[in-house]
Amino acid sequence: MSSVVVTAIGELTTHDPELGTLHGAAVVAEAGAITWVGPAAHAPAADRRIDVGGRAVVPGFVDSHTHLVFAGDRAAEFAARMRGERYDGGGIASTVAGTRAADDATLRALLAARVAECRAQGTTTVEIKSGYGLTVADEERALRLASEVTSEVTFLGAHVVPAGAARDDYVALVTGPMLAACARHARWIDVFCEPASPHAFDGDEARAVLDAGRTAGLELRVHGNQLGPGPGVALAVELGAASVDHCTYLTDADVDALAGGDTVATLLPGVEFSTRSPYPDARRLLDAGVAVALASDCNPGTCASSSIPLMIALAVREMDLTPAEALYAATAGAARALRRTDVGVLAPGNRADLTVIDAPSHLHLAYRPGVPLAHALDLMPDARR
Ligand code: NIG
Ligand code: FE
């Protein structure tokens, strides 16, 4: 197996408490894993050498929340929102229709292109949800396709109640036959818990979905408190979910629960940007000691961007995170939201997922928004992340 040294790293952000940030550094990797990190002058010999010419290197971005399996777009819905229309989840139905109508080859190609787009912008781990099928066969297919490109696959049959279905019947389907068909393709189960949306699920329905998922061997994540205050955060913490995502409308009790629990608060500022909504109060969470992650939520409705650098820039500009806090949230924080310790931190033994910034420091991610500076380094081509 051949080894590779990545050298002449101007600024290396490791997020490892002992290694910290290094200047003039090198990383050695073998078989996709880091074997050594330190000053370039002391790097052990390797079979191959990649000189990054003084650029910054950071842990590959971990996008812990995406909905990449879909067909069609909702650009017109976005334009209507920019004219003042409100988002309530109703547009999901149009993506469901487009996705059901696409054949496997088309969906697989769309998904592959989106994963490549993520990687080209520095993302090396991506979570992918179902949720645009909403029948047993269509959800099972979405998860099967997602599992071809990532190990972080999430069953989101409980995205919305599909048109024409009765709520109770649909929850029974999701927790019964749909879960039975889908569980083997997924690691996670998720639910859109949002009483403020007529299409999504209330606290009792969300609890039923999560309980059934756990019984089927899945780990828990929740979409909560996106459109208004609600039970999503409290439920996620009570059930020990790995993450509760959105967290835009939080009470003091929600913040206290998050601070006292083991659930990561994942913030998705691309959604507030693309729905012209108020941003979550990230400082309130960080100051309370809550573990925070940053992800894209890339989906055709509320955020059609897969750019983690954009999310970092928004977190810095709109949510008062420092550039270092935002980068941490999009790497180590998001890894924690996926209960992963092998990514998000560059240290011996971890995955050799390195992202190069075409700039001397990580500050440029927020300082130069919209400029394509970040790229994942291909040390060991491996499609499954
Ligand atoms: O995370 N909140 C629910 N689901 C997605 C939006 C999906 C859509 O509108 O297509 C979200 O924002
Ligand atoms: Fe989402």
TrEMBL record:
Catalytic activity: 4-imidazolone-5-propanoate + H2O = N-formimidoyl-L-glutamate
Cofactor note as given: Binds 1 zinc or iron ion per subunit.
Superkingdom of this protein's organism: Bacteria
Binding positions for Zn(2+) per the UniProt entry: H65, H67, H223, D297
Residue positions binding Fe(3+): H65, H67, H223, D297
SUPFAM superfamilies: Composite domain of metallo-dependent hydrolases (SSF51338), Metallo-dependent hydrolases (SSF51556)
Residues reported to bind 4-imidazolone-5-propanoate: R74, Y132, H159, Q226, T302
GO MF, one annotated term: imidazolonepropionase activity
Subcellular location: Cytoplasm
Pathway: Amino-acid degradation; L-histidine degradation into L-glutamate; N-formimidoyl-L-glutamate from L-histidine: step 3/3
Binding locations of N-formimidoyl-L-glutamate: Y132, N299, G301
InterPro entries hit by this protein: Amidohydro-rel, HutI, Metal-dep_hydrolase_composite, Metal_Hydrolase
Span of domain Amidohydrolase-related: 57-359
Top enzyme category: hydrolase
Chief site of localization: cytoplasm
Keyword vocabulary terms for this entry: Cytoplasm, Histidine metabolism, Hydrolase, Iron, Metal-binding, Zinc
Cofactors (names): Zn(2+); Fe(3+)
EC number: 3.5.2.7
Xref: Pfam families: Amidohydro_1
Keyword Ribosomal protein included in the entry's annotation: no
Job of this protein: Catalyzes the hydrolytic cleavage of the carbon-nitrogen bond in imidazolone-5-propanoate to yield N-formimidoyl-L-glutamate. It is the third step in the universal histidine degradation pathway.
Similarity-based family: Belongs to the metallo-dependent hydrolases superfamily. HutI family.
Protein's UniProt name: Imidazolonepropionase
Source organism of the structure: Pseudonocardia charpentierae
